[in-house]
Fold this sequence. Notes:
Layout: H1 3-20, H2 34-48, H3 53-56, E1 63-72, H4 84-99, E2 104-110, E3 118-127, H5 128-137, H6 139-142, H7 153-161, H8 165-175, H9 180-196, E4 202-209, E5 212-222, H10 229-255, H11 260-272
Helix pairs in contact: 1-10, 2-4, 2-11, 8-9
Amino acid sequence: MTLKKSNQLCIFILLILLSLKGFSFQPITVPFSRADSLLADSVLSMALRNEALYSLQGDLKPISTVYQFSMQLDSITLLPTDSSDFNRFRDLQRIANWLSNEEFCFVVIPFTRLFSHQRTMQMLVVNREKLARELEVRKDFWFFWGLVPESSPEVVITVIENAEKYRRFEGYGYLFGYPQYAVDFFVEAARSQDDTGEFVHRSFFQMPVYSGQDGRFVYAVPENEPPGTEDLTIRKEAEHILNSFIMTFEPFKIQNPDLPFLNWYLNQQATNN
């Protein structure tokens, strides 16, 4: 029996047991407009279906990417050419503020570099406790900028986004939860390419997410190098978190088909508090 079929069978049995006990998941009243609630549900769908699951559940990743979008800029003035981008950014920022709490922080910031007269914005989710732990464990790296466990997530991300190239790569590697050897490899590969002009070939180690088996929580490793103990430990923990999420979310989604990701997130927050 495949893992997927096994999960489906377990979910079916769980639903039967819950119904026999008269148990049901209760949706929480959402204090936002319908349009904002739909946007919040879409944001959380992108988060929980992909790598941000490992920041919102467990503690594999201090931060994760949720969503990215680009604004076209005028080639001369470098001002946005589409006035609707302003309202779109305000909508995302409002949702980020609303979803943030004592446990998680949703942050919307721009990438510093422009590409083809486009400014790319990114929404990230931060596991506050995991970030504070990272700033403590690698304080020799982070205190270079005066960053400490009590620093706000917005400041940490903005500082590392605007850091010198190789320190930026290293800092993002730590924030995204990559192992030390993978961060070192990526930084040194970038240095080598800058020095020689030759691309350093690499392989990629993948962790499964709710939306698929690869392409989301992934990091570069030396080409053709087999997974090490640390890699396999990370993957095992990711699979455990993913399976636990599936076992709770699938029956919840069946009972709460409207705004399932938003209602699940709010239920989790209510339960934890």
